[in-house]
């Protein structure tokens, strides 16, 4: 059963666990805050559920606790960051800051990242742009988990796509998703909780459709939206990895299987300064108009959400405390105990 815990306590315990593994405190806090924010937004698949993986990957040196990220290319509105196997959150904090600065200067910015790792929920990063009146488009490679439409062999990652626009309304307009039918973390969460996954999410190792999360993880996830979704997923893989020396998913040894694997994850972030086109106020009003039209499309008595509304509402109602699944709490208690840390914040 889910229980709720104070946000501050969860960020602090996440940071302590990462610090115990050797991550400097500022990077540990930044990463823990990003994970807890996903839980606040109701994206448990990218919340503290990931912390044991992050910590064990740092311990096994698949993730570099003390990286030296370097800007390897700088060309006008383009910049390329080699993250030196940093936590993806550390890489993305630098990438979003750079993208915002370049977009302010040039009206648009394209920042690519190579040699990175998992950055968590994409919307956490695009929110940093929309809060400044910028549009953001973000994608990434991941571990190899997805077979393209018509295939059985895993070739692609769950390649997240985040498209975000600032709004004059209460929430940015944010489409943030895995391009697999279900996010990998949701399959892991279903496995942890002993629940089936929806039909159409995966095939087993023999290529047969399955709703068993364990069989799905041994087999392959499927792209969302049939051949069209598969086409998008393939292109995102190319965008996230072909501009840099980042690896394609099929060239990686997945860190879930081997914590010492260097993922060489690639990210691509585009930022567009609305003020370079008309004005920030104009774009934010236009975006709010569209959100309102989408919401108003519901049948009488029903609710229709604009992209990002559900996560925004969840975050608003969980500003102070955040629910965690019992299986996640059990894994966190085990992690903290193994690190010799207090488990008090998680005790009933
Ligand atoms: N870092 C990585 O490697 C990686 C990889 C894959 C996914 N992710 C992240 O996983 C997270 C979850 O992805 P997901 O595919 O499970 O997302 P999801 O299916 O929960 O939501 C996808 C989108 O659909 C919208 N949506 C959902 N339900 C809706 C409804 N009833 N009405 C209107 N809109 C609705 C949401 O606002 C969201 O924009 C994302 O934050 C993504 O960035 C990260």
TrEMBL record:
Gene3D superfamilies per record: 1.10.1530.10, Hypothetical oxidoreductase yiak, domain 2 (3.30.1370.60)
Domain of life: Bacteria
One Pfam family in the UniProt entry: Ldh_2
InterPro entries xrefs: Mal/L-sulf/L-lact_DH-like_ah (IPR043144), Mal/L-sulf/L-lact_DH-like_NADP (IPR043143), Mal/L-sulfo/L-lacto_DH-like_sf (IPR036111), Malate/L-lactate_DH-like (IPR003767)
Keyword set, alphabetical order: Oxidoreductase
Claim: Oxidoreductase is one of the keywords in the record: yes
Family membership: Belongs to the LDH2/MDH2 oxidoreductase family.
Protein's name in the database: Ldh family oxidoreductase
Lineage of producing organism: Bacteria, Bacillati, Actinomycetota, Actinomycetes, Micrococcales
């Amino acid at each position: 059963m889910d229980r709720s815990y104070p946000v501050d306590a969860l960020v602090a315990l996440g940071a302590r666990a990462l610090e115990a593994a050797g991550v400097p405190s500022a990077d540990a806090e930044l990463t823990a805050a990003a994970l807890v924010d996903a839980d606040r937004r109701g994206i448990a698949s990218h919340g503290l559920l990931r912390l044991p993986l992050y910590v064990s990957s740092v311990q096994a040196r698949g993730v570099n606790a003390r990286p030296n990220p370097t800007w390897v290319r700088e060309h006008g509105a383009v910049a390329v960051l080699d993250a030196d196997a940093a936590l993806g959150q550390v890489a993305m904090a630098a990438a979003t800051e750079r993208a915002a600065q370049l977009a302010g200067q040039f009206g648009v910015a394209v920042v690519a990242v190579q040699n990175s790792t998992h950055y968590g929920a994409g919307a956490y990063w695009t929110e940093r742009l929309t809060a400044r009146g910028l549009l953001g488009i973000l994608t990434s490679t991941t571990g190899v988990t997805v077979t393209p439409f018509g295939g059985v062999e895993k070739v692609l990652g769950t390649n997240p796509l985040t498209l975000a626009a600032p709004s004059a309304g209460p929430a940015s307009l944010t489409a943030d998703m895995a391009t697999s039918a279900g996010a990998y973390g949701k399959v892991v969460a279903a496995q942890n909780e002993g629940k089936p996954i929806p039909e159409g999410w995966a095939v087993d190792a023999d290529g047969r459709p399955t709703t068993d999360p364990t069989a799905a993880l041994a087999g392959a996830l499927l792209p969302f939206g049939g051949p069209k979704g598969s086409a998008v997923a393939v292109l995102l893989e190319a965008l996230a990895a072909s501009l840099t020396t980042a690896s394609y998913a099929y060239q990686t040894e997945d860190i879930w299987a081997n914590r010492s694997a260097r993922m060489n994850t690639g990210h691509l972030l585009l930022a567009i300064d609305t003020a370079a086109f008309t004005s920030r106020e104009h774009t934010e009003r236009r975006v709010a108009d569209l959100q309102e039209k989408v919401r108003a499309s519901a049948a009488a008595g029903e609710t229709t959400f604009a992209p990002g509304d559900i996560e925004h509402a969840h975050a608003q109602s969980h500003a102070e405390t955040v629910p965690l699944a019992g299986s996640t709490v059990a894994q966190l208690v085990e992690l903290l105990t193994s690190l010799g840390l207090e488990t008090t914040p998680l005790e009933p």
